[in-house]
Write a structure and sequence with these properties.
heterodimer; A: mainly beta; six-stranded mixed beta sheet; B: 116 residues; mainly beta; seven-stranded mixed beta sheet; 11 strands
């Protein structure tokens, strides 16, 4: 069973700052690593995803950095805004088509 | 293009009753996944279905839980004789017909089950 370790559990960032969330995974031969964003009372929504043939992917203020040799990937949120306050989950393929999720990071962006 | 739909959004059951959760995938999607989220925890995979077939049920409890995705109509997650530990948010996701591991899974808003 694929395990995914996500840190930190919670994060407080000042508006305009950089939010960084990290995930580490175990052995995998799969090629898809998504990040999901979840607001209270809502379902998770895909934020950004990366394939391990690249080391970085950027979409707007969101960047995934991927280190295949270390089996780690991280989410960077540049110029963090109060509207980014949410819970963020990393995920890995868990065998077959299922996803294995990290335990989540509660991000709060303060004014 | 409507997203993944789930109903009911909130469900209250007493211990011993049955809970039925429904999921309609996105249009054109024939792969459905169910996940459970306990308070302050991440999502845990339960079951993966295609039309009329259970593909992977490795995350389903052995007893009281069942799932189906009939040829017509929504996918159903059924919990018999509910217990307080079943209280959680249950999310359905769907993906396109490719069924590839890289296919994006789109999640519904969830059903929040409370067992009294």
């Amino acid at each position: 069973q694929q395990q995914v370790k996500q840190s930190p559990q919670s994060l407080i960032v000042q508006k305009g700052g950089i939010s960084i969330i990290n995930c580490a995974y175990e052995n995998t031969a799969f090629d898809y690593f998504p990040w999901y964003q979840q607001f209270p009372g809502k379902g998770p929504a895909l934020l950004i995803a990366i394939r391990p043939d690249v080391s970085e992917k950027k979409e707007g203020r969101f960047t995934i950095s991927f280190n295949k040799s270390a089996k780690q990937f991280s989410l960077h949120i540049m110029d963090s805004q109060p509207g980014d306050s949410a819970t963020y989950f990393c995920a890995c393929p868990g065998g077959g088509n299922k996803l294995t999720f990290g335990t989540g990071t509660q991000l709060k962006v303060e004014l | 293009n409507a997203g993944v739909m789930q109903n009911p959004r909130h469900l209250v059951r007493r211990r011993g009753q049955e809970a039925r959760l429904r999921c309609s995938p996105m249009k054109g999607h024939s792969h459905v996944y169910w996940y459970r989220q306990l308070p302050e925890e991440g999502l845990k995979f339960m079951v993966y279905l295609q039309k009329e077939n259970i593909i992977d049920e490795s995350g389903m409890p052995k007893e009281r839980f069942s799932a189906e995705f009939p040829k017509e109509g929504p996918s159903i997650l059924r919990i018999q004789q509910v217990v307080r530990g079943d209280s959680a948010a249950y999310f359905c996701a769907s993906s396109s017909t490719a069924g590839d591991t890289t296919d994006t899974q789109y999640f519904g808003p969830g059903t929040r089950l409370t067992v009294l």
